[in-house]
Task: inverse folding
């Protein structure tokens, strides 16, 4: 990290002295850590958007989509810390995402000529996960309250049961009652998903 | 995040396991999407902050450069500050005073053609013409030849500018200040008279009124306001001296004015030294 980066009052990387600390924070989905790698990777996102003939404001989309894949790889253990700056891995993902976006937009750009094999497993897994996320969002809405909130607080927002009970965000006043309710709700959610899969012959 | 297996029934079949896996994948996806969306909002705020930081830094840098430029260049030309630099350099004119032997100091070199090469004349040493003409004396005193000559002399020396140096016009003087800035001296005079009726006479009022009367061509009246201010405000003093000199000229006190201009021109750091030198040259025998 350069001296200027350290001195800048709005620098999100200030608290991450080394790459390992940054990686550990990313594993915990720490907002500052994500912001840190994103600010480091943003210039490359702009460069790729330009290089692959995407719209100028596509850089943000490239960065967001790549960050999703990047975080999932960290969560799944697909990306392990090996001493390198995490942002370099994000930049590599961005290059591939920008390439895929170029393909989906039907751009005939010279940058594509050197990439005959456009099959990218990471991007495809991300696409599959996005579809699953959309479905689950629909199912949750279908279930309604209190299941939607109970599941969201734990599995999407990442709050602990203690925190949820302490803040009084649900009607459940003990962690045990909250866990029992969530278990019921999750079972219902899985049933809905199973039903949807059989209806659609999946 | 909890393991999805705990939500499966005791004899879960393959279809149920796959549905559970899809649900967990979807929940993880939602969690990551939410996270990335919230970071995107933070990122936008961060870039806005960085943008404004850069604006502030650029402004500070500009102010610093302007300050440095003022120190390097501005100081040299302080003596000609009352007049804009783009005005043409004054051409030698025949003196309006009916004495043939008077010479403007800066023009001496031209009389001795060849003694000082033009290339050695520093631009900051030149004194441009006054920005504004003197008040129309011929309208007040008639258009006799002597008045016309006097008018020409005044036009050559009318180095006046506003706001007055060292004076900050506060709230009650806003109207008069605005009029003086617009060089609407009649309106300014009315505004100042109104103030005179509303408040005790003070130095600011005197100075503004003196300047207003000077620009209206009322030398004696201007002097009556300027004289009590002498030696009372160090920041006003240099300009006040020059304006008193002009007021003396208007009032017909030519000798007194010449004495004053001679004093001023001997002060090397006086902001009106060049003007005084020119005035003394034009007025002296």
Result:
């Amino acid at each position: 990290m350069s001296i200027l980066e350290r001195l800048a009052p709005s620098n999100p990387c200030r608290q991450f002295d080394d790459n390992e600390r940054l990686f550990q924070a990313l594993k915990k989905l720490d907002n500052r850590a994500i912001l840190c790698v994103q600010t480091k990777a943003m210039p490359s996102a702009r460069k790729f958007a330009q290089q692959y003939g995407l719209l100028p404001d596509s850089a943000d989309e490239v960065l967001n989509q790549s960050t999703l894949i990047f975080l999932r790889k960290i969560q799944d253990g697909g990306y392990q810390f090996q001493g390198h700056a995490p942002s370099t891995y994000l930049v590599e993902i961005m290059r591939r995402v920008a390439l895929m976006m170029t393909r989906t937009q039907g751009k005939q750009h010279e940058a594509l000529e050197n990439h005959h094999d456009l099959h990218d497993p990471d991007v495809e897994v991300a696409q599959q996960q996005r579809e699953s996320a959309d479905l689950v969002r629909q199912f949750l809405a279908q279930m309604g309250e209190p299941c939607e909130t109970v599941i969201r607080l734990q599995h999407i927002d990442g709050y602990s049961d203690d925190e949820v009970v302490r803040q009084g965000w649900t009607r459940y006043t003990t962690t045990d009652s909250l866990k029992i309710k969530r278990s019921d709700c999750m079972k219902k959610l899985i049933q809905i998903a199973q039903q949807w899969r059989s209806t659609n012959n999946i | 995040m909890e393991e999805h297996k705990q939500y499966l029934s005791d004899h879960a079949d393959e279809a149920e396991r796959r549905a559970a896996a899809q649900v967990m994948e979807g929940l993880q996806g939602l969690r990551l999407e939410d996270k990335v969306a919230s970071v995107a909002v933070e990122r936008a705020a961060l870039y806005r902050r960085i943008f404004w930081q850069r604006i502030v830094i650029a402004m500070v840098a500009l102010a610093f450069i302007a300050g440095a430029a003022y120190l390097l260049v501005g100081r040299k030309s302080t003596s000609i500050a009352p007049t804009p630099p783009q005005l043409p350099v004054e051409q030698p004119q025949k003196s309006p005073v009916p004495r043939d032997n008077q010479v403007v100091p800066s023009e001496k070199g031209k009389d001795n053609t060849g003694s000082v090469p033009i290339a050695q004349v520093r631009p900051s040493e030149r004194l441009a013409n006054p920005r504004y003409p003197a008040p129309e004396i011929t309208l007040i005193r008639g258009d006799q030849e002597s008045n016309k000559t006097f008018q020409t002399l005044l036009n050559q020396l009318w180095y006046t500018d506003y706001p007055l140096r060292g004076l900050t016009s506060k709230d009650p003087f806003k109207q008069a200040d605005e009029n003086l800035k617009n060089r609407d001296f009649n309106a300014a005079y009315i505004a100042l008279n109104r103030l005179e009726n509303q408040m005790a006479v003070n130095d600011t009022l005197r100075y503004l009124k003196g300047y207003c009367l000077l620009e209206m061509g009322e030398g004696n009246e201007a002097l009556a306001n300027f004289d009590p201010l002498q030696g009372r405000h160090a920041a006003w003093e240099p300009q006040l001296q020059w304006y008193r000199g002009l007021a003396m000229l208007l009032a017909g006190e030519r000798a007194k004015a010449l004495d004053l201009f001679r004093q001023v021109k001997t002060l090397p750091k006086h902001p009106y030294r060049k003007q005084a030198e020119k005035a003394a040259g034009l007025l002296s025998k």
